[in-house]
Write a structure and sequence with these properties.
The protein is α+β, with helices and mostly antiparallel strands and about 200 residues long. Helices cover about 30% and strands about 25% of the residues. It contains five helices and eight strands, in the order αααααββββββββ. The strands form two sheets. Strands 1-6-4-3-7-8 form a six-stranded antiparallel beta barrel. A two-stranded antiparallel sheet has the order 2-5. Helix 1 packs antiparallel against helix 2 and helix 1 runs parallel beside helix 3. The longest helix has 16 residues.
């Protein structure tokens, strides 16, 4: 499919009653598509999808359209959101340790590159702390500086490790044995396990 067909197809996956806080709707997307304003239409679709439980197909096709338009950050975001559907997502308020207290001296890329370890309270068979890996996306910022604070989205590598994590819980980020940052969980959205059929 070309970009126009992809964006039209994606538009059909958004319920008509969905609108943003500033009253943007699917009709606005169609208006921009009629004028070949593909990048604006794609941005509006991303905005319409905020907070909406849309399908894997929506995010896959939107990612493909972003790739065809050469919009790397939008494509990365769409792939990230698709992964959130598959693996779940934890939003948290993360504060990184300053460079004087941690090994990190450079900023963290905000766009899902880093996959740090997290101490979320799990224990190994020997009763030692056991860490779990989750990808990290920084909301509304291209990078997070050492000592900085931001709202982040985490995608668990193994969602079953995270089933006990609750809103308000404090979790620690590790890039080595030392604590690199501390986060307070704001939201937990894990995938529902498939029910076995008989």
């Amino acid at each position: 499919m070309d970009v126009t067909e992809l964006l039209e197809s994606v538009s059909l996956l958004v319920p008509e009653e969905v609108a943003t806080d500033n009253d943007i709707s699917v009709q606005d997307v169609w208006d921009h598509l009629a004028h070949d304003e593909w990048q604006i239409a794609l941005s509006l679709l991303e905005e319409l999808a905020d907070g909406q439980p849309l399908t894997l197909t929506f995010w896959e096709q939107l990612a493909e359209a972003a790739e065809q338009l050469g919009l790397e950050r939008s494509a990365a975001w769409c792939h990230w959101r698709r992964s959130e559907i598959r693996n779940g997502m934890i939003r948290a308020d993360l504060t990184l340790r300053p460079p004087t207290e941690a090994r990190r001296r450079t900023p963290i890329s905000g766009h899902g590159v880093l996959r740090p370890m997290w101490d979320i309270g799990n224990l190994s068979p020997t009763r030692a702390a056991s860490v779990s890996i989750a990808g990290l996306w920084v909301e509304d910022m291209p990078v997070l500086e050492p000592g900085g604070r931001a709202t982040v989205r985490l995608i668990p590598l193994t969602p079953t490790h995270w089933t006990h994590v609750k809103t308000g819980q404090q979790i620690n980020m590790h890039e080595d044995r030392t604590v690199a940052g501390t986060a307070v969980v704001l939201e937990v959205h894990l995938p529902t396990p498939a029910t076995p059929t008989r």
